[in-house]
Amino acid sequence: MSSRMVCVADFEEYANEKLARTYKEYFSSGADQCQTLKENAEAFKRLRIRPRFLRDVSCRDLSTTLLGEKVDFPVGVSSTALQGLAWPDGDICTARAAAQLHSCMIVSTYANNSVEEISAASPGGLKWFQLYIMPDRPFTQRLVRRAEAAGYKALVVTVDTPVPGKRYPNLRSRFQRPPHLRIPNFQGIQSSAAPSKDKQNLVRGPYPLDRSLSWKDIDWLSSITNLPIILKGILTAEDAGIALEHPGVKGILVSNHGGRQLDGVPATIKVLPEIVAAVGERLEVYLDGGVRTGTDVLKALALGARAVFVARPAIWGLAYNGEDGVAEVLKILRNELDLAMALSGCRCLAEIKHPLVVGEEYYSKL
Predict the structure, then answer these.
(1) Which residues of the chain carry a pLDDT beneath 70?
(2) Is 180 a catalytic residue?
């Protein structure tokens, strides 16, 4: 089945042909005119690699640690809602693929399998739980307890979604979650807790976002859990600096929600250096958005990311062949990173440093 699948773009092409139009649009759409969605990938292409040679790259090590947990290579799977649209029990399949490759999966609050089901189906796999802090705080606390009990190693708090972004295709098709897809993590929530009237919440059902979310809620979260907190959606040095003032925060996932929230914000690879400079060695910094090749991974690592996470590529792999499809996508990115390291003179991730990658303007000045 995999003879023609040689790069991530092959999986994208297959998924776009296979998935029902409304499902494809749900995963692929960006906010408004999709400027940020497009720029996430295009910005990587404007970066140039300055390879070094004669450095004996016969042995290469791609392993690293994420908050102290070892992974075999620095590519994980980012949180994506409604994976059941792409494959039955999609979240379980993705978790098993990530565990098989000794990588990390961020499990979505809006997964179609429960935190317990996903954990039980992928024993030994490193999993973080993506959390929306709900207006129903007692429910949020119970959800955190469930993640703790199921063995999740961190909470990834999405901070860029006080309200949903406007995505034209979803609105035109009046997309709603199919009734056969459950969202079991919400068992026990008070659905009367001021549900949002935003049209985009047709996707989410009666589960409200919290428009009042602030830094004090990050402190509240750290007061009820010992799990490390990662902030997903930070895009400025200013917010990264504030994050340093909150002891429970141990990492930042530089993300613009795949270009699905505020159109016109920069590509994540563009803002990565300022976030890294703002936090130094005090927080781990990761990136998602626009990663499609092993050289993209190399560029993100050179600019200071400890690891990258992919979302749509995993969905494309899922649509192709379930667990095996996701595993194939991860293997391609791992092998492409290994190749890029060999061809640029890097034997381990510690040797992938800033001078390796420059913008196009570097050569225009020569």
Answers:
(1) 1-3, 190-207, 366
(2) no
